[in-house]
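To close the chapter, one final illustration. This time we ask the reader to focus less on the individual chains and more on the assembly as a whole: which components sit near each other, and how the overall shape emerges from the parts.
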Amino acid sequence: MKKKKEVKKIVFHSAKEMPLMPMSLGSMLYNKTGSWRNIKPVIDLEKCIQCGICWKFCPDISIYIENEYPVIDYDYCKGCGICAEECPTKCIVMVEEKK
Amino acid sequence: MKKVIMGNHSLSYGAMLSRAQVISAYPITPQTQVVELLSEMCANNVLDAKFIKVESEHSAMASCIGASLAGARTFTATSAQGLALMHELLHWASGGRMPVVMGNINRAMAPGWSIWTDQNDSLSQRDTGWIQIYCSSNQEVLDTVIQAFKVSEKIMIPSMVVLDAFVLSHTYEVVDIPDQEKVDAYLPPFKPEFTLTPDDPHAFGGLTSPEHYFELRYMLQKDMEKVPALIQETAKEFEEMFGRYPGLVEAYRCEDADVTLVTSGTVGYTARVAVDMLREEGIKAGNLRIKVFRPFPFEIIRKILGEARKVAVVDRNISYGHHGIFYEEVKSAIYGFTKDIPIFGFIAGLGGRDITPEDLKGIAHYALKKDRPEEEIVWIGVKK
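The assembled structure is written out below.
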């Protein structure tokens, strides 16, 4: 439910430090996928009924809930538009990213 | 206790005595009886293991990988097309460092459809990062399964215990089945450093960037290099407890040999008979049976073949467009490390055609007659 924590990229400098198995070799959180986005979801909170469907459907766990309302985590949101598609009140719209 | 059992059941007893906890397999002739007996053992509570029925060998190995990751000792068995279907997962098991032990009954690859023996199925999996051990008797099969669990779990690399279709899989031999207590003392329970558990969640086998992938492969190779010594160490321990030494190779009358046959699998035992027959004729022949193929036991092979005068490698397999695979491997292992030794490559017995003592005698005579190899491949018993 909460915003993702900032995580530093883990780099092993020697095989000796690494686990034997390819397991949990650091987190991918450092990889801010938000930069991949061409269109972004924008929520009109006036129309939001706090159903949580957008939060549930977000495949990248890039929507968290703050003060009972959904918030988009633009650091990671890739702009897939699933939240806008699923929102029952259509309060999420996809707008062009202007960089 | 001594029992007369077939090679397939040697694998089953080996897995039972090793207390395999998860067994997942799909039947394929000539392997079928391995899992048939294991499923009976599970059903009758002789073996406290979860038997997972699957729809394919791909899923069988996938189940073993999942179970191994969860910390269970896992076993499966297959042959030929079944092994080929597992191919992708073989990389997952070795790359993920999961010590699965598998029996593979060497069966020729189709087409033409075959259920008879040759080694092309397992040798096609040469570069998947599995330990490969080729057995020559039912006793060796049973002993090797128990030892393979010990080696694999120590070094976290999976093992393939290989035996010839029918010549071993369906042949009944006297096998000493060790006491469970003694096997328990030899093989402690599997306790991996990391397991898949909700108490300490980790992602296994996830995306690995170029920053780390290379090191994982380096570590796998470095650990593979430790396996020959580990096999010798565990074989010595095995010998102390059970009186048999499941080592890397078996050298038979090689010391003063004018011609050394290099063999594997059951051909290795036929070759001993051929060597005795040749010796009776006054020909100094020897036989080096290679048991462990991966990792290739360079040191011991260089030591034994370094003393040889002529080497004749017998392959029941072929790398199309090249040579017999053991021939390639032996040549590359000794090149530059020993004196220049003429080394001849023979291909025999593909698709289960018998390799007789007479064939092997002919091979020895051929090598003795020639100074240097004159053909890339010398074919034995093919109707040209």
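Chain B has a mean pLDDT of 97. The radius of gyration of chain B is 21 Å. With these observations in hand, you are ready for the problems at the end of the chapter.
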